Amino acid sequence: MGQEIPRIATCLWFDGQALEAAEFYCRIIPGSRIERVGRYSEGKEFAEPGKVMLVEFTLAGAPFRAVNGGSQFKLSEAVSISVSTKDQVETDRIWDTLSADGGSENNCGWLKDRFGLSWQIIPEQALALLQGPNATKVLRALLRMKKIIIADLEAAAR
């Protein structure tokens, strides 16, 4: 028997780049993989037979689906993927890779990748500092950042 299909998964809408995006995300986030790729078959009026219709993948164990639905809908900041990183090295690697090649950086650890999907890249240390005794100072420093720099937040907390 095949692998069980997750009952709940986030579905992302793309205009022809579903497989490319899913492969890109799986290369960046540890513990991620493509689960299955569904293609249009003969007789389907929506797309050429053999073209990718749906990609099921997991990012660090979280289930996602990417559909090639066409151009009528666009990804927006209303939905983002939040990634807690373990240190500055991982933060830098994920941030730099996602924001490259047409991506754009935004404030407070947010960015948009080249496909238009929004991400929040938040180091675990930043979350801890935001709950500490100097959270207000840390938040002020965070609001001035694009990519989060842990050392700068630690300095603000002192």
Helical run tally: 5
Low-confidence stretches: none
* β-sheet strand percentage: 25-35%
The count of strands amounts to: 8
What is the residue-averaged pLDDT? 93
Please give the alpha-carbon distance between the first and last residues: 56 Å
**Going across the major beta sheet, what is the strand order?**
1-4-3-2
Structural class: alpha/beta
Largest sheet: 4 strands, mixed
What helical percentage do the residues reach? 25-40%
Q: How are helices and strands ordered from N to C? A: EHEEEEHEEEHHH
Query: Rough shape?
Result: elongated
Gyration radius (Cα, Å) is 18 Å
Describe this entry's structure for a reader.
The protein is of the alpha/beta class and 158 residues long. The chain has 5 helices and 8 strands. The strands form 2 sheets. Strands 1-4-3-2 form a 4-stranded mixed sheet, with helices on one face. Strand 3 (52-59) and strand 4 form a beta hairpin. Helix 4 packs antiparallel against helix 5 (150-157). It is elongated, with a radius of gyration of 18 Å. The mean pLDDT is 93.
